[in-house]
Amino acid sequence: MKNELVKRLSEVNKDSLGISEAIAICTAYATLQVYQHIETIARPVVKADDERRFIIADSVLIKTNEGAILSAVVVRKRGVTVPQPTALLYFIYSNTDRSIADAKYAAARGYVGMVADTRGKRLSPNTVEPYEHEATDVNSVIDWIVRQPWSNGKVGMYGGSYSGFAQWAALKHPHPALKTIVPYVAAIPGQGYRWKTTYF
Predict the structure, then answer these.
(1) Where does the Xaa-Pro dipeptidyl-peptidase-like domain lie (predicted)?
(2) What is the pLDDT of residues 130-177, one digit of tens each?
(3) pTM of full prediction above 0.85
(4) What is the fold, at CATH topology level, of the domain defined by 53-186?
């Protein structure tokens, strides 16, 4: 909403406006005001609904087989009493709100939703080393998943870009609990990214 208003204002480069330009700017401003007002009301309502529908653990720490610490978000649907399969997104982008949203989406559809962050991201104290440890770290995450009482021992991975790469890397040493991968637009080392930088 704010971007729309800024865009409209940036397109104005003269001393006067036509009626359609003025209406467009006023509409964008009014929409932004309404959105900001609704957002302050909606946030607590959405949070209460999430607490009613889901069990959200947003500070899970997982120790890898190599001793590194990974952080994760796990979301389960409240009231489910049988073990479920896990939909795992493994990524480097580390945004807690986005991770919770992705995990809730999976949990609302019959899975335990989980988003695990690479080394050095979010709550992990380790150094960020893109593309270096996914083949083993993903297996450590899956090991952790299958030990949980809510897991039925089946894991599927999904996601694009870096998450797509992580799925292919995980197949270097296929975990028996990893039943499917759904990669799309998977990144590969050296293509589209400068190698050995702090891009992530």
Answers:
(1) 83-187
(2) 889 999 999 999 999 999 999 999 999 999 999 999 999 999 999 999
(3) no
(4) Rossmann fold (3.40.50)
